[in-house]
Write a structure and sequence with these properties.
binds phosphoenolpyruvate, 47% helix, binds magnesium ion, 16 strands, Glucose Oxidase, domain 1, TIM Barrel
């Protein structure tokens, strides 16, 4: 039977593999009593499951350590030690002696522990809740003999398409990248960070499938098409061949686009448009450079932290930033300070919040944790001597935050000077304009910053009050809404008046009609995923900025995002035809 599930295309490419369901959630536990004479056997069953869970953790730890390093693997030590806690084990044994089945006894104790830790006055202990939850799931799955859902320890040689309800960036970086050939999730949208990360990892992905995880059994053969956003389950051999052919054609198109890497990014009417790359992982730096990008417009440093139990130290960060700066051989490299929070929570160490996107995120967290922030700033300043570094602050709402950040930057400089270490002075500091507050009051920033970079993923989310990761709202996430277009126009005008560089580094910049709208709104610098650099360059070279301005004016005066899209599409089609748009 052929079933094709349709979601949102999140990361291009086609993958054929077998479905691996990841249900990483605490299972329902039936209430069951054991007769007195079976209590010793039940105790042995419990300890057997704990031993197997520990063994599993050791294997996973070794695999993650080999693939990603010691720091990433440390979270598994924490989980291992939870399973050796004598109070916890004694609590479960006590319940089993009162005739509760092992799974029920363990479930009750873990629920109690998780609640106790969640309410703890010591922040570090509150943060252990996610480890307790992982242990809870792992041991219950063994006791209830549920299928193995481990996402980080797949059989050797497997080619799997990971299907899950939702995936955090923390879990994504830990995935077994050899075995996983594609990702499909029920939740998420194009701008959720799982999608962004999948693109960086070059893993085809479809998100927003809504109920795929429930409707699949696991083990089915499937084709995941991240370009069109479909997951075809149990395809026929003929269909698989068709997809292979499509993959070959895509490869040809990509090769053609790659040839654009050396040509100039200039519009038909001779206006130069700077294209830079968004880099999410330091390993991407060289490929980003080869895409033809004229620098890095956004490096998302928080991905250095995802999936780890502790923050990377100054030395490790220095090496990561230096790699990216050196790959670009003197071209501008904009590195953004940590944007932790929202949907980018590391595995341990940070509290969960009821409204993470309105919470302790990005610059807010950095200003409240000056030791973490100064460590990052020191690493950046040291790496700065190897090229043209610029520092960017995320999620600012007030220039007061810029002033505080600058004060910490001065302290970081003082610390390096005292150590006698070489570092770059007078590094330009700019801000991301990604909140309506920063957009409306852009003029309050312009005197004190070196550049503005519009983060449309968040600007759209906060302007339209649409959660960027909520699949149910995906069709309401409309960057062409007149409110967004007017804000962008305002930011460009304010930047121009102050003589500041204004760029766009959100996903909007990589989509043809939207890139066209941005050119028309006066944006002359775009930063996009490395793979999108040639695609956007092709658009730039095929259109005239004069025409784009006329189209953008029409879009600005449209009543709705749909009308704006219609105007832009009609004009872009006239200019370059249908094919190049998609
Ligand atoms: C944005 O918000 O548009 C942006 C580029 O930052 P991020 O996607 O990392 O939030
Ligand atoms: Mg953002």
């Amino acid at each position: 039977m052929d079933r094709t599930l349709t979601g949102i295309p999140a990361s291009p490419g086609v993958a054929v593999g077998s479905i691996h369901l990841l249900r990483w959630e605490v299972p329902d536990v039936p209430h069951r009593l054991v007769p007195d004479d079976q209590i010793p056997a039940e105790l042995r069953r419990f300890h057997g499951a704990v031993d197997r869970a520990k063994e599993r953790l050791n294997q996973v730890r070794a695999r993650v350590e080999a693939a990603a390093g010691r720091e990433e693997a440390a979270i598994f030590d924490v989980q291992h030690s939870i399973l050796e806690d004598t109070d916890l084990l004694a609590g479960v044994e006590e319940f089993i002696r009162q005739q509760l089945a092992a799974e029920k006894a363990f479930d009750l104790v873990m629920l109690e522990w998780r609640q106790r830790f969640a309410r703890h006055s010591v922040a570090m202990l509150r943060e252990r809740v996610s480890d307790l939850t992982d242990v809870h799931i792992r041991v219950l799955s063994l006791l209830l003999e549920l299928p193995d859902h481990d996402p980080v320890n797949l059989p050797k040689g497997a080619r799997v398409i990971l299907v899950t309800h939702d995936l955090t960036p923390g879990l994504t970086v830990q995935l077994d990248r050899e075995a996983i050939v594609g990702i499909a999730t029920d939740a998420g949208t194009r701008t959720s960070h799982v999608a962004i990360l999948a693109r960086s990892l070059h893993l085809p992905a479809v998100v927003g499938l809504r109920d795929a995880a429930k409707s699949l059994a696991g083990g089915e053969r499937a084709i995941l098409d991240g370009t069109s956003g479909t997951l075809a389950v149990d395809p026929t051999d003929a269909e698989i061949e068709q997809y292979r052919e499509r993959a070959r054609q895509e490869e040809v198109v990509e090769a053609e686009l790659r040839r654009l890497s050396d040509v100039e990014s200039v519009s038909l009417d001779g206006i130069p448009v700077t294209l830079r790359a968004n880099v999410d992982l330091p390993e991407e730096a060289e490929a980003a450079h080869d895409s033809g990008a004229e620098g890095v417009g956004l490096m998302r440093t928080e991905f250095l932290v995802m999936g780890r139990a502790t923050m990377p130290d100054e030395e490790e960060q220095y090496r990561a930033y230096r790699r990216v700066i050196e790959a670009f051989e003197g071209k501008p490299v904009v590195i953004r300070t940590f944007d932790i929070g929202g949907d980018k929570l590391p595995v341990g160490g940070f509290p969960t919040e009821p409204n993470p996107f309105l919470g302790w995120r990005a610059i807010r967290m950095c200003l409240d944790q000056p030791a973490i922030f100064r460590t990052q700033l020191r690493a950046l300043l040291r790496a700065g001597v190897h090229g043209d570094l610029r520092i960017m602050l995320p999620l600012v709402v007030s220039v007061a935050e810029v002033r505080q950040a600058r004060a910490l930057l001065a302290e970081a400089e003082g610390e390096l000077a005292a150590r006698g270490v070489e570092f770059k002075r007078d590094v330009p500091v700019g801000v991301m304009v990604e909140t309506p507050a920063a957009a409306v009051a852009a003029d309050t920033f312009t005197r004190e910053v070196a550049f503005l970079s519009i983060g449309t993923n968040d600007l759209v989310q906060y302007t339209l009050a649409v959660d960027r990761g909520n699949a149910n709202l995906a069709n309401r996430f409309t960057p062409l809404h007149p409110a967004v277009l007017r804000l962008i126009r305002r930011i460009v005008d304010m930047g121009e008046q102050a003589g500041l560089e204004v760029s766009v580094c959100g996903e909007m910049a990589s989509q043809p009609i939207m890139a066209y709208a941005l050119l028309g709104l006066g944006v002359r610098k775009l930063s996009v995923a490395p793979r999108s650099v040639p695609l956007v360059k092709r658009i730039v070279r095929s259109v005239s900025v004069r025409d784009a301005e006329v189209a953008a004016t029409a879009a600005l005066h449209a009543d709705t995002a749909a009308d704006a899209e219609h105007e832009l599409l009609r004009r872009l089609r006239e200019a370059i035809g249908d094919l190049a748009i998609h």
